[in-house]
């Protein structure tokens, strides 16, 4: 996530204090902290509601992140965390593990365990493989000098990429054969979903299907003395929620990066040569059969542990 919306091959290189993705100068973490504190203090002094403060602070975070090339606060704070580690480690040996989107467990502690629903795309890796990579990295760096390359990108995009369109097919096939039962005890029917290949087509769809009808409802509401106010408010709230959610995940919907994992692969090979039980501490993405994993492990795990 520290790479934001970068595309192409993304290497296991570190970020130093003040580095930015877009070449902008002036990134100072202390200054960023003060900007956040000042905005928060001003909002509280004005008596703003908690909801208003939350929205304002989210917007501020996104604004500050975009100044330096990152799309949102989530990834901006991740990279600042790495900067602090590199800056403060001195002679301490450290390792930074960068997992891609983490999915349900492959084998341990049992197949399919998931803590919640996450976004999924071609950059995925099961949770237990991430844990194993962390454990092996800790052992490998325990007696290494602090200047040894310490970045490990753990993902599948280079060695075993997952095709996004296949995910839709896996989910459709699974829930067609084994419908999810909702809280009313009724099976949820699934269908083929509409797939957009760029943001422009999505915005056109939303405009024609939802935003223009909402404008019509707004006019009707005004003409009939706010008779439709409740319905208008409900639809407006739902549309705003969807658009905000899409904007949050937009950087990853059409992500064009591939994560180099030479350090991670070297770590795996060295671990095997040094007698580490690689059948226990496994993290090779090439061993994953994505179709079998999603249909027989990940999706059943989501239903059992996340939908409960």
From TrEMBL:
Span of domain Fatty acyl-CoA reductase C-terminal: 210-308
Residue ranges annotated for the Thioester reductase (TE) domain, each copy included: 48-127
Enzyme class per UniProt: oxidoreductase
InterPro entries: FAR (IPR026055), FAR_C (IPR033640), FAR_NAD-bd (IPR013120), NAD(P)-bd_dom_sf (IPR036291)
Reaction(s) this enzyme catalyzes, per UniProt: a long-chain fatty acyl-CoA + 2 NADPH + 2 H(+) = a long-chain primary fatty alcohol + 2 NADP(+) + CoA
Gene3D superfamilies attached to this UniProt entry: NAD(P)-binding Rossmann-like Domain
Keyword tags: Lipid biosynthesis, Lipid metabolism, NADP, Oxidoreductase
Domain of life: Eukaryota
CDD domains: FAR_C (cd09071)
GO MF, any single term: alcohol-forming long-chain fatty acyl-CoA reductase activity
Family statement: Belongs to the fatty acyl-CoA reductase family.
Function in brief: Catalyzes the reduction of fatty acyl-CoA to fatty alcohols.
Protein name: Fatty acyl-CoA reductase
Organism field: Citrus clementina (Clementine)
């Amino acid at each position: 996530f520290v790479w934001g919306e970068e595309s192409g091959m993304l290497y296991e290189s570190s970020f130093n204090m003040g580095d930015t993705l877009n070449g902008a100068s002036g990134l100072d973490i202390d200054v960023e902290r003060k900007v956040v504190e000042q905005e928060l203090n001003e909002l509280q002094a004005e008596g703003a509601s908690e909801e208003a403060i939350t929205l304002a602070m989210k917007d501020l975070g996104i604004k500050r992140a975009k100044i330096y090339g990152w799309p949102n606060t989530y990834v901006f704070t991740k990279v600042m965390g790495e900067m602090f580690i590199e800056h403060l480690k001195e002679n301490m040996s450290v390792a930074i593990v960068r997992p891609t989107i983490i999915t349900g467990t492959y084998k341990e502690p049992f197949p399919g365990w998931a803590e919640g629903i996450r976004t999924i795309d071609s950059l995925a890796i099961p949770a237990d493989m991430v844990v194993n990579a962390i454990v092996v990295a800790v052992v490998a760096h325990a007696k290494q000098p602090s200047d040894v390359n310490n970045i490990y990108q753990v993902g599948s995009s280079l060695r075993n990429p997952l095709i996004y369109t296949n995910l839709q097919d896996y989910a459709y096939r699974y829930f067609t054969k084994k419908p999810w039962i909702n809280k009313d005890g009724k099976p949820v029917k699934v269908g083929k979903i509409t797939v957009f290949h760029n943001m422009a087509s999505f915005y056109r769809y939303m405009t024609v299907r939802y935003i223009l009808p909402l404008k019509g409802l707004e006019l009707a509401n005004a003409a009939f003395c706010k008779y439709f106010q409740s319905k208008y408010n409900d639809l407006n709230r739902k549309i705003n929620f969807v658009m905000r959610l899409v904007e949050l995940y937009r950087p990853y919907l059409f992500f064009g990066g591939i994560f180099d994992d030479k350090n991670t692969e070297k770590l795996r090979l060295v671990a095997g040569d040094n007698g580490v039980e690689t059948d226990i501490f496994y993290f090779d993405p090439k061993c994953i059969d994505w179709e079998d994993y999603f249909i027989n492990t990940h999706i059943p795990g989501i239903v059992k542990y996340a939908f409960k």
